[in-house]
Design brief:
By secondary structure, the chain is mainly alpha-helical. The protein has helices spanning 7-11, 42-45, 84-93, 106-109, 172-181, 191-199, 204-211, 219-236, 246-251, 259-269, 362-371, 420-430; strands at residues 2-5, 36-39, 126-127, 133-134, 152-153, 159-160, 297-298, 339-340, 382-383, 386-387. It has a two-stranded antiparallel sheet. It has a two-stranded antiparallel ribbon with strand order 3-4. Strands 5-6 form a two-stranded antiparallel ribbon. The chain is globular. The chain binds heme C (2 copies).
Length: 441
Amino acid sequence: MLFVLSEQCLRQGSRIDLKDDKTYHSHLISQLQLSIMLFVRASSLGVLFSGLLLSACGGGGGTNSSTSPNQSSSSASSTAALSDMAALGKQIFFDPSLSASGVQSCGTCHVPSRAHAGDDDLAVPIGGPNFKTQGFRNTPALNYLQFNPAFFFDKDGTPTGGFTRDGRADTFAIQAERPFLAPHEMANGTKAKMAEKLERASYVAEFRRIFGASIFNNPDDAFDRATFAIAAFEKEAPEFHPFDSKFDAFLDGKATLSEQELRGFALFNDPQKGNCAGCHPSTRANGLPPLFTDFTYDNLGVPRNTAIAATADPSYFDLGLCGPDRTDLADRKDLCGAFKVPSLRNVAITAPYFHNGKFNTLREVVSFYVRRDTNPEEWYPSGVNGIEKFNDLPPEYRNNVNTTEVPYNRKLGDQPALDSDEIDAVVAFLNTLTDGYQPQH
Ligand code: HEC
Ligand code: HEC
């Protein structure tokens, strides 16, 4: 079953009220500005939408990051069948011959069994022509990203959406260009070099069948078509959005959470305790099971990670929205240090954590959230002026760190928002978000 939220509709601010929606947190997923094409299991949504084609306020059309250029996704069904375009995209995604090293594909860094995050346990991945060049950011999971809108500022001026951790790519296809070219990733340098490799790929006949016999006459076009195919795969393939964690089974009434998991869930939601749901919403919206991200940005003051070679230069800072990778918001100094809120689905299998891969366990992450301000000595080095809080930001941007929202609105000497048992409970809850749960009979 398929339903479409049209871009215009959402821009006009009308909402589709679905019976299973609960009142939402401050950042509303219903603010998605782009059309979302969803193939959702009937069981997640109930009979309410069976056979329904919801085009909320007509009009349709518009630029649409979630629809591939040839609308291939509309031919997919909620069963595992992929459109030809997406099936081709899958082959491209897993083809290491498309890299300069010959050993790295998209799938090398984005591993299916890890919700398409890295499985190297490294803070930042290795790539490049000799497979020796270190990258700059931790590899994010790709699951559930098809619900990520293109970048925009919402009506309150909150930066929202976009692909990569700084939102600089508007679509999956645009995002896919860089890894093929970047010197620290698949390192082809030019689109033509990548297209040369594509022309030798085992599936080239299928590529020509879909995109035309003469597609390689213009190598840049061939390159672009490969990114369209990858985008179709990332949007269509059920493995990117299974919605079959223990938590999903719990929502469907097919599993029970343990007492500790339930307590963790309550603490996760409680605005005075974890307040995690303030940015990682845990309720359904627009007929979607909870995504645990509102696609906004925040500056958490994550400690510097010296495992990243680039940090040997004391003047190197990854400032997220304001650069250096992203360039159009360089003047928005207030956004320096903000990174995208990731989904927490599958977070138990996507370590290490945060944009710089600073932490290896969920316990460390949750402890950091609640003890960052009460016990900064646990997280930051001491310098000449005492504990150097927020040391992965140049001093002039340290004021940008969020110090007003629970759980990081505390001061030195205050009680942390969660005690040790409560941290364990939140971690137990996060462990229920891993897909592939088999309900016990
Ligand atoms: C060397 C490892 C590596 C390779 C190879 C690689 N990626 Fe990534 N990928 C990353 C990292 C690191 C990021 C985060 C980049 C950033 O934030 O600037 C990322 C980000 C992404 C994102 C955006 C995630 C988000 O949260 O918005 C997508 C989508 C993606 N990659 C798909 C691909 C595709 C498709 C390919 C192949 C063409 C690919 N990647 C190849 C490491 C890799
Ligand atoms: C004000 C917004 C906000 C709140 C509140 C918040 N988070 Fe986050 N969370 C973020 C942002 C932003 C990131 C990414 C930061 C980065 O990469 O530097 C993040 C990242 C994470 C990660 C790492 C995910 C990954 O794949 O790397 C985990 C785990 C996490 N949050 C859990 C929690 C928990 C548990 C709570 C409640 C105790 C919480 N968050 C509260 C904004 C928030």
